[in-house]
Amino acid sequence: MASMLLTSLRSSPLTSVQAFTQKLKYSENLLSGHQRCRRVCFFIRFTVEIILCVFILSVFVIRYADLMPHDLARAALQGLLNRTGLPKDAVDYIVYGTVIQEVKTSNVAREAALGAGFSDKTPAHTVTMACISSNQAMTTAVGLIAAGQCDAVVAGGVEFMSDVPIRHSRRMRKTMLSLNKAKTLGARLSLLGSIRLAHLAPELPAVAEFSTAETMGHSADRLAAAFGVSRLEQDEFALRSHTLAKKAQDSGLLSDVISFKVPGKDIVSKDNGIRPSTMEQMAKLKPAFIKPHGTVTAANSSFLTDGASAVLIMSEEKALAMGYKPKAYLRDFVYVSQDPKDQLLLGPTYATPKVLEKSGLTLNDIDVFEFHEAFAGQIMANLKAMESDWFAQTYMGRKTKVGAPPMEKFNSWGGSLSLGHPFAATGCRLVTTVAHRLQKEGGQYGLVAACAAGGQGHAMVIEAYPQ
């Protein structure tokens, strides 16, 4: 058993053998007999190499209004199967993320899996964690594999902004439910007579925090002001995102996008939100949230799109046995949370140092950075927070600043500002880009980071698979 354990540990450059054996020795002093065996077996399972094999994205675009979310997720799953030749029965589990849930397909993972032709014996469940929902789906897959429950899991995310659920007002809903239960004509007529014109006003969905009743755009505007991020800086960053995305698209680097046939319409084969403009044109736009003096506009904010993503995650042993060439190792990850009002969008600042310390790396070890671009002001505020000793000491309990990623390594194929942001699908897109950039640029380590509603955040370390 000891030789097996050490062999497994040596295969991972991010695991300290000395630290691990100390933990194991300590555990053995506390446990005995059957308990000790169970503890050791758990550690052995957790050292399983987790591999990202294949990534598929259905195009991020608003034009699917006549469809449903599971249609896009199904297309992503079918695209994954078509590109890999993966036997459907080789997938042990399917996990999908979604944010704005369609009530008819509350477990969209299951409905998409059945629609894609997976066996009805393959379990599937849906997770939600705002903008990091597909990150949660991927790390849930990692947990299933590390625990020895599965060898191959498909994780992904889907968002459908073209047809979001719109509810009746609460008063109207209560009346309708009571009407359904009424047993006499008189009771029904009485309830119908109580309906007023105001009751018919619908409740429209809003990208707002329940705890603060503040939209994310307002938070971005205040965050930009707090860190002194100017309108000019935000517009320049947004233009950078669109310009780099256009270059990557024209160069064929966004190769995991699959074409999608819209029923009764044409085939959509590429993201249509990439639109490089000019600083002069962007300067003409009025503030979108805090008027008239805000700095966040439609041009320097990520736009909401439809989209779906899928990632095949396997143990390395399983992938190689099936003849697949893995793309990357998923080495480590963390989730963080902080004040949902004043620090709503600072997840990357808090998560980055934690995941680096957890994995035994430094900022200088990272070759590729992919941060979610919710707003240009949010990105710039995070970069300034990461460069601030005062912020690190005052809010993070750190002696020195985190340090900001060098821009030449940062989001160099564009980001959410230009590619769009279908909430739950974005996390897989970030990981996809990291893996491909590492292969293209010859780097070893990549770092994904993102903020999310509720003041939450996520970071993940990806390592390139040896070519």
TrEMBL record:
TM regions (residue ranges): 43-65
Keywords, in A-Z order: Acetylation, Acyltransferase, Endoplasmic reticulum, Fatty acid metabolism, Lipid metabolism, Membrane, Mitochondrion, Mitochondrion inner membrane, Mitochondrion outer membrane, Transferase, Transit peptide, Transmembrane, Transmembrane helix
InterPro entries noted in UniProt: Thiolase, Thiolase-like, Thiolase_acyl_enz_int_AS, Thiolase_AS, Thiolase_C, Thiolase_CS, Thiolase_N
One protein family per Pfam: Thiolase_C
UniProt subcellular location: Endoplasmic reticulum; Mitochondrion inner membrane; Mitochondrion outer membrane
GO molecular function: acetyl-CoA C-acyltransferase activity; acetyl-CoA C-myristoyltransferase activity
Boundaries of every Thiolase N-terminal domain copy: 64-317
The protein's Enzyme Commission number: 2.3.1.155, 2.3.1.16
Pathway listed: Lipid metabolism; fatty acid beta-oxidation
Segments forming domain Thiolase C-terminal: 324-463
Highest taxon listed in the record's lineage: Eukaryota
A biological-process GO annotation: fatty acid beta-oxidation
Catalysed reactions listed for this entry: an acyl-CoA + acetyl-CoA = a 3-oxoacyl-CoA + CoA; octanoyl-CoA + acetyl-CoA = 3-oxodecanoyl-CoA + CoA; hexanoyl-CoA + acetyl-CoA = 3-oxooctanoyl-CoA + CoA; dodecanoyl-CoA + acetyl-CoA = 3-oxotetradecanoyl-CoA + CoA
GO cellular component: endoplasmic reticulum; mitochondrial fatty acid beta-oxidation multienzyme complex; mitochondrial inner membrane; mitochondrial outer membrane
Function: Mitochondrial trifunctional enzyme catalyzes the last three of the four reactions of the mitochondrial beta-oxidation pathway. The mitochondrial beta-oxidation pathway is the major energy-producing process in tissues and is performed through four consecutive reactions breaking down fatty acids into acetyl-CoA. Among the enzymes involved in this pathway, the trifunctional enzyme exhibits specificity for long-chain fatty acids.
Assembly information from the UniProt record: Heterotetramer of 2 alpha/HADHA and 2 beta/HADHB subunits; forms the mitochondrial trifunctional enzyme. Also purified as higher order heterooligomers including a 4 alpha/HADHA and 4 beta/HADHB heterooligomer which physiological significance remains unclear. The mitochondrial trifunctional enzyme interacts with MTLN. Interacts with RSAD2/viperin.
Similarity section: Belongs to the thiolase-like superfamily. Thiolase family.
Protein name: Trifunctional enzyme subunit beta, mitochondrial
Source species of the chain: Cyprinus carpio (Common carp)
